[in-house]
Amino acid sequence: MTRDHTQGASSPAIVLKDVQFSWSPDQPPLLDIPNWVLNRGERLFLYGPSGSGKTSLLNLLAGIILPQNGRVELLEQSMSELSGRARDRFRARHIGVVFQQFNLIPYLSVLENVGLAAHFARETDRVRERSHDLLRRLGLPETQDHQPASQLSVGQQQRVAVARALISRPEILLADEPTSALDSDHRDAFMTLLLEQVAETGSTLVFVSHDRALASAFDTRRDLRELARPVDLMGEV
Amino acid sequence: MLLKLARRSLWSRRTTALLTIVAFSIGVALLVGIHHLREQARSSFQQTLSGTDLIVGPRGGQMNLLLYSLFQMGQPSSTLPANEYQRLASHPMVEWALPIALGDSVRGFPVIGTHWSYFEHYRYGDGTPLTLEQGRPFAAMSDHEVVLGATAAKELGHALGDSLVIAHGSGEVSFTHHESHPMTVVGILAPTGTPVDRRVHTTLLAMEALHSEESAGGGDHAGHAHHADDHDHDHDHDHDHDHDHDHDHDHRHDHHEHGAHTQAEPVPGAVNAVLLGLKARPMVFALQRELNTDVEAPLTAIIPGVVLTQLWQTLGVAENLLYLISFLVLLATLAGMMTMLLASMGERRRELAILRAVGAGGGTLFCLIELEVALIALISLVVGVGLVALALALAQPWLAAEFGLFIAINPISPQTAYLMTGILGLALLMGLVPALAAYRRTLSEGLNSGV
């Protein structure tokens, strides 16, 4: 691959302009973001307590939903200009997602879970070797490669999830409280691994969490509420 | 990849998937099995008789003529005039003529008086001739030899050389036995899967001999000869013959009305029906018309294939009902599958969210669910058809032995292939419901990764 994420580090990875969003049209907007820019290669800690519109924001940033008003631009590509299918493909190629937990298809093996992401990204280039590499670097032993994901511990699952999210070398990595299911020891180890891998890939990282203790590792820290100014804090459960 | 996902996903829910497949397979087996049996029954029914161009009997109902001449069911309304058989046999269009004389039985198995050339001309299936499993045909001029059909031989427990007593009438229990004239088994036919298997064949001569002896010493039954019109109007032919005594008297009147040939002395050559083979098949309609409008004798001539088809159609109602029921069973199992998949959508929300996150679109998820439906359907079709084949393989010897039914074990034919494609299509149609649910859920809920 010739993609070089560090090139043009000053060009924006994410631009949100006058974005308003709500899940149903007759509700007041959950998110109201007048202007937000995140540059490529930046690593952002976004403090987001529950009810702050976190899920909605992640869906917007993943190109899964479109705002009622305003513009979402990812890697200088406006999401509303793409068809649903094109957005799916865009997500597969350029965006990695790590959830709080349940990141893996339980009945597929570790390798298959990682390969699944590459499949949807239409990536065939040495997927197996790169999966092996990634998994080893994330500290997962080879003996577990063929185990069903459901047999792994939560900590291991989260590390596989990182491998799955990074296999297509996405420009943007979205992480939604990936440490919330881990105990503190595992959490620290996980954070170190995650940041290492992100640095290696050169991805732009949006890390959303309610745990301020994690913030210290990041270049940029923002509070989702000041960014988003949700109209109704209780709107999202 | 999607196929692998579908396969693994089903495997991860194998208990429910297996139950669904079991139910679905039974539905498939029922529908395919009934379809197959129906086709087999229809074709074997149509092939009860082949090579015979016309069946000629005394004037009467076409269906009745077919039923008694071919299936030995019901009673002939009267006999053909004595000279009629000779006249038909020597007709210029006729190549061969087989007489059929009915009216007697051996413990419920009908006795047929006929001509030695029966074994040459009588055909079934696609023109298969009768073959003797043991022994030989009866001698042309013999009056005490019988050839048993396969079922008759087996059920009666007779082997070659055994002697047996023919009873008067067609019932299982008869009070009148032609005991003074025992018959000898000289041949046993190979099974055919047609009414031939139940017949006891003998010569016309033997039938006459039976009844003339009977008339010599038989008191009350003196006048019945071998003519099956003894039993005129005795429609419950399967029942006992208590009634015969009553009826016999009535019949005498009939006989008088019909003419002198049915009087006390049996007339050689008097028969209930004649099977005709023509020199040229296209003449069949001409001859049928000629015989049906014959002024010399009141005759009915039928083309067996045509009347067999009519008969099958009258039986079709029950058969269609069975078909309908099995179709409804299949629908019920399909609805069960739909419910199973819909219910699984709840527990698979996360799975779908993950797929969505790695770039699977709504369309992909839709395809995934439909693929699972297709897998379930295909497995069920294979298992269902396998079940049918297995059941047939197990039941075939029994069906052949008990009922003389020969059912092909392989249920796959062009029609069942259509049927199976239809079932698959229907399953996919039903699968639209959970598939659309998956599609819409992913669009409306987005990445609701959470718990």
Notable traits:
heterodimer; A: 237 residues; alpha/beta; five-stranded parallel β-sheet; four-stranded antiparallel β-sheet; 32% helix; globular; disordered C terminus; B: 451 residues; alpha+beta; eleven-stranded mixed β-sheet; two-stranded antiparallel sheet; 13 helices; 13 strands; 53% helix; 14% strand; elongated
* Total DSSP E strands of chain B: 13
Largest sheet of chain B: 11 strands, mixed
Q: What is the percentage of strand-forming residues of chain B? A: 5-15%
- Strand order in the largest sheet of chain A: 6-7-8-3-9
Which chains have the largest interface?
A-B, 32 and 28 residues
The helical percent of chain B reads 40-55%
Spans of chain A of 5+ residues with little confidence (pLDDT < 50)? 1-9, 230-237
* Computed structural class of chain A: alpha/beta
- Based on secondary structure, the structural category of chain B is alpha+beta
Rounded to an integer in angstroms, the radius of gyration calculated over CA atoms of chain B is: 31 Å
Count of DSSP-assigned helices of chain B: 13
Q: What's the multimeric state?
A: heterodimer
Described by the principal axes of the CA atoms, the overall outline of chain B is: elongated
* Separation of the first and last Cα atoms of chain B: 27 Å
